[in-house]
Amino acid sequence: MNEEAKESKLNSFSDVFELMKARLDITETAKNLFIDPIKPIKLNNRTAVLFISNDWVKSLVKENYDEIFKKNLRDILGFEVEIEYVTNDDHSVTPEEIVRVSDPIPELDDDPYAKTRLHETEENSNYKYTFDTFIVGESNKLASSACRSIAQGNAVFNPLYIYSQPGLGKTHLLYAIKNEVESRHPEYNVVYVSAETFVNEFVNSVKMNSTEDFKKKYRNAEMLLVDDVQFFSGKKESQNELFHTFEELNRRGKKIIFTSDRPPKEINDIENRLITRFEWGLLTDIAAPEFETRLAIIKRKAELMDLKIPNNVMEYMADKLKNNIRQIEGAIVKMYHIVFLTGNTPTILMAQNIIKDVMTEQQPVPVTVDHVITDVSHIFNVSPEEMKSKNRNSQVSTARQVAMYVISKVTDLSYTSIGKEFGGRDHSTVVYATNKVKKVMQHDPAYRATVEDLIKNISNT
């Protein structure tokens, strides 16, 4: 956690929201237009209520910033938060609540345990993404060494490209680089951004005619760290902007680090010139951690949280949580809260229950139909509205059929329910569409790769 966050006194939801805003890595234009006018109303159990003046801004904020808000609120509060957006047309909040946005959070006043838990969470290691808290093992040794080399100014390669399955420490390493460089060189402008945020900001800058502000933010960086570049798949204009940003930074000798869930050549629908740039420097992967590394992560996390866990319990957890560091860290945090609130000593039985909960929590969130339609629309360059309309244009029809097929694969919706999402089409239309996609996939490898990549991207979101 940064010093500003440590020193913050979070006595109201307004304080929490202001701290969250300070953590957002977005352009000043986006902040002024869309974020600053938002009023934090209340934190009702685990639902944050935010007031937005009109429905247009509400839809834009939900589309572009909802996940970013949730991630940052979770980091600050220490627990998952849902967000409810209200406008003048809603009646779930009173005018008085809209005005009085700095009332104390009810939970913090009424529940001393919750208040203590929040401040304990602040003081512990949830946000300390440093090299000291990154456990090095055989599975990540090269990636860790490369990142340390960059942070210490010794790297001769550019860029660095790290790939792995989700939850194995890529984002931790990016923040470790950022924190190390900023501590050594406070004057440096080190920019971390997720690929999704980069794309959303670029699209908004085009809409708002503020592309110069966007370019200034990224092309004037001393170091640029871009997380999850597979998100650029199918987004041609954003790819072009990333390419020219890369060229400018590389020309000026600035370091660039990318992460992804796959090697460059396995990202479908991305320009060859960008793949070439990804491969210019050092490529390294991170594998699933071996038992010894998993055990070391548990010990280190417990030590940072001053949590005493018997060796047999730690070994049991290391044996069961095999594939994902986020699950390991989530289990330790959950155990910490149970021990803190109950005073009980960690046991195998406690670990069993926690692991079951964590494994359930880490399952993918149910995919929304709108999410699928939006991703397909980007790849086929048609609008969601066209896909739901009666338009029989070949490009639109192909996109619509692919969307129907993907939805049938990643959701539990019936064909009838899927048809209703596309302008009320009937069951037989969806059956025809899915069968058509299957046939084309059998004979067209590029088409099949595009569809399979869509399913993979959406399932991993």
Description of the structure:
- By secondary structure, the chain is of the alpha/beta class.
- It has four domains: 3-105, DnaA, N-terminal domain (GMP Synthetase, Chain A, domain 3, 2-Layer Sandwich); 141-285, Rossmann fold; 291-361, Helicase, Ruva Protein, domain 3 (Orthogonal Bundle); 369-459, Orthogonal Bundle (Chromosomal Replication Initiator Protein Dnaa, Chain: A), CATH 1.10.1750.10.
- Helix content is 58%, strand content 9%.
- It is built from 23 helices and eight strands.
- It has helices at residues 3-7, 13-23, 28-35, 55-77, 95-99, 106-110, 112-123, 141-151, 170-184, 195-207, 211-219, 236-251, 272-278, 291-304, 311-320, 325-342, 348-361, 369-380, 384-388, 394-410, 415-421, 427-443, 445-459, and strands at residues 39-44, 47-51, 82-86, 160-163, 190-194, 223-227, 255-260, 282-285.
- The chain has a five-stranded parallel β-sheet with strand order 5-6-7-4-8, sandwiched between helices. The chain has a three-stranded mixed β-sheet with strand order 1-2-3.
- α4 (55-77) links the parallel β2 (47-51) and β3 (82-86).
- α14 (291-304) crosses α15.
